[in-house]
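Annex B. Sample input.
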Amino acid sequence: MSNAERISTPGKADEAEITLGILNAVHQNERITQRSVAQELGIALGLANAYLKRCAKKGLIKVSQAPANRYAYYLTPQGFAEKSRLTAEYLSDSFRFFRSARSQCTEALHFASQRGWTRIALYGTSELAEVASLCEATNVEIVAIVDPHYGHASFAQFPVVPSIKGAGTIDALLLTTLADPQAAYDLLVQSFPAQRVLVPALLRISESTS
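Annex B, continued. Sample output.
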């Protein structure tokens, strides 16, 4: 998203993107301020205020008084559901998706290469996994795709295994599921080092949940 301020009357696509940005910001940090949201999303302060109020009115976030005349914001169950829906909608733009996915997966593999992580497994069979399979980095090899729910032996010419253990010795995982990636990430880091889970930014993952 551009850091330049948006116009005061965003179009439908911008509205969805701003709402998703608001929900992500609240998910990551309940102590956000209207000003920090405006800076993070690159929108005017008044627009950030208006969207926070709109999300609260729709029941997507809950607002409570905090010390020093500040407010705390929380995602409601409805807000979590809307965040997932908007993320899926955002990813459905095929051209933007492919361009962003290829760039971000390549960047993730280069990140792995710089740290000497040579054996990488993808986590999740999806269009994102297909894009990742086309990406390369020096001395990095994609060895398998981990997917507990996929019923076939291979995907995108890679073996598919139902568990991380089935992938053998690996140095890192690249998250490639599009089916509720936040839930997949939260579950994944319970059994695998979070610092070795590579997450494309387009998945809009909140790495620290409230």
